[in-house]
Structure formats: structure tokens, C-alpha cells
Amino acid sequence: MSFPVPLTDSLGRRIDYLRISVTERCDLRCAYCYPQRDSDSIPSDTFSATDVVTIAGAAVELGLRRIRLTGGEPLLRGDLEDIVERLRGIPGLQDLALTTNGQMLAGRAAALANAGLMRVNISLDSFDPDVYAAITGGGDLAAVRRGLDAALAAGLAPVKVNVVLSSPAALDRAALPAFVELVQRQPVHVRFIEAMPTCSHVGYLPAQSVLDALSSRYDLRPVVGPEGAGPARYYQLDGSVGTIGVITPISEPFCAQCNRLRVSARGELRPCLFGPAESSLLPALRGRDPTGDVLHLLEQAIAAKPRRYGDVAEPSGISSMHVIGG
Ligand code: SAM
Ligand code: SF4
Fold this sequence. Notes:
This protein has 326 residues and is α/β, with parallel strands linked by helices. It has ten helices and 14 strands. Helix 1 (49-62) runs parallel beside helix 2 (80-88), helix 1 (49-62) crosses helix 9 (290-303) and helix 2 packs parallel to helix 3. It binds S-adenosylmethionine and iron/sulfur cluster. Residues 26, 32-33, 70-71, 73, 99-101, 123, 162, 164, 193, 195-196, 198, 202, 321-322, 325-326 line the site of S-adenosylmethionine.
């Protein structure tokens, strides 16, 4: 079987990565993503498992090679293992990853790995249980730690940890050593991510401040990132098994290397995280030729990718990160 040559947009960027938000539901309420509101209702999921497989199949047929499942919290879907197994059956798919808050990962990491999941990113903003609970609106740090261990035990690799730099409290002097200790002990890649201004609750700390704090105490050696490295820059610390990385969407935007499209949990196709949705996939998914029509819309979204997010004519704001998927 032959596959199309890699997709390149009009600016020479190689587009090979699709993120699909499979639910907007979440069991947490991180202040920078899904702030608590009294009026919160629980939406039902827009996509069936078959819809997700159709979208991914069209993307791979077009030439995209890497899929990430995100949300909301993807583990709230009881059929996630089924989705993963069906996605792994798509010829030509080279990479299948998941982003999760890890709350329910301990009990499902092995089943997900058996179904064909290749790797996982776990969001874990602090190793202080109280700070973690405050940031996430009640999250249980011990549960995420068990999830992290289960992911490693299940052979998911690489395991990455996402830390959003939304408040200096998450990164006081006591916090950094816990992340350092993790990468010294385990083959885990911790990435400090500059918070994107999704709502007024979001603080901002440049990722450089993490590197400055670390380099005063440790020897930081720039290294090539783990498999699937995206916009992150990685460093090894004093010969650590894992690495520390930084992702700098605000201080050093990486639009020139942007390789991705996004599908939100409401079925919108987004060429740029900061821009408006290009189109809805729902009519195509409910039509007579779902794969062909979705493929066509994906092509149009690639053509509509802006040069950089400042060029987006009508920035949509990204107030609903849990819908878009991060
Ligand atoms: N619930 C899962 C989780 O938390 O990992 C997956 C969905 S979450 C929207 C995906 C990623 O987006 C997480 O790593 C989260 O920390 C990140 N994220 C959410 N809001 C953000 C913001 N305002 N700035 C930067 N990253 C953000
Ligand atoms: Fe939920 Fe993830 Fe958003 Fe936190 S970052 S509220 S865990 S979707």
C-alpha cells in the first residue's frame, strides 16, 4: 500500500499532526482552562467512536501521520480503549498519543497500552497536594502520581508531564526540586508551558524563569527531545534519565514550525489555536461520504493556516480550552 507524500502548506510547513478533542467534559476545573461557573451543564459528547475513527482515517489518507486524543478529559469516555484500538487499525498511522489529567489513568493505562496507545502526556502542575488541588479545582495529586507510575509500567513511551506556568505559586523554590527529582529518577520529560491568556484567571510566568532558576543549581545540557518532540526545547540535568523542557507560545511563538490542525469537541476544525474555527465537520460526518468530505475540509483548513497567530483576522479568543483540547 502506498501513502501520499508528506503534506506541506504554502509556507513550507510540514503538516503531519492532528489533535482531536474527544469530549469537552472534564472532572477537573483548572483555572486557566475551564473555570468553574454556576451554570455549568454537562454536555454530551458530540463524536461517536466511529466519528473519531472517520476523522483520523481521512487525516491519514490525506497524509497526516500523527494523532493525539485530548479533551476535556478523554478518560471520561468509557469507549476510549475501543477508539484507540480502532485508530491503531488505520494503515499509515505512525503515532497515537493521549493527553490526560491522569486522575483515572492508573486503572486504565495497561488497557490503553494493550489497545495500541503509544504514548501519553500527563498534566501535573505541582507536586504540592494543596497547590495541585487549588489549581485544578479539587484534583487528587496521589491519583495522578499513580497514573504516572502505571503509564511507565505499561510501557507507554515517552511519558511527558505538562506543567502550565499559570501562577508563580506553582513554581516557588520548593516546587522545582520535585520535578527535578522526577526526571533524575524516571524516564519522564517534564515540559513547562507558558500559560496562554484564555481568561482573566490566567497568570503568566515566562518559561525562561524556570531555566534561570534551574541553571543556578544544576548543569543544564540542551538535548534532542524525545520521540514526538514538538515545539519544546529540552535539557538534561546533571545526567538525568529524563529531561526538562520549555514550551514558549508567548515569549517565543513557534508559528513558523506549526505542524498541526485541531478538531474541537464540538466538531470545529481549527487551523490555528488562536484563530476562529474554519468549518464544522459535523455536516460532513452525517453526510453520504464522510471520509471524502472530511478529507476535503482538512485540505481547506491546511490552506487556511495563517503565517502566525498575530495575522489571524478575527482572533476568536480561546476561552474554551477544554473544548479545543489545548
Ligand atoms: N484534560 C487533559 C489534560 O489536562 O491533560 C487534556 C485536555 S487539556 C485542555 C490539554 C493541555 O492543555 C493540558 O496540558 C493543559 O494543561 C493545557 N492547557 C489548558 N489551558 C491552557 C492555557 N491557558 N495555557 C496553556 N496550556 C493550557
Ligand atoms: Fe480539565 Fe485538562 Fe482543562 Fe484541567 S486542563 S480543566 S484537566 S481539560
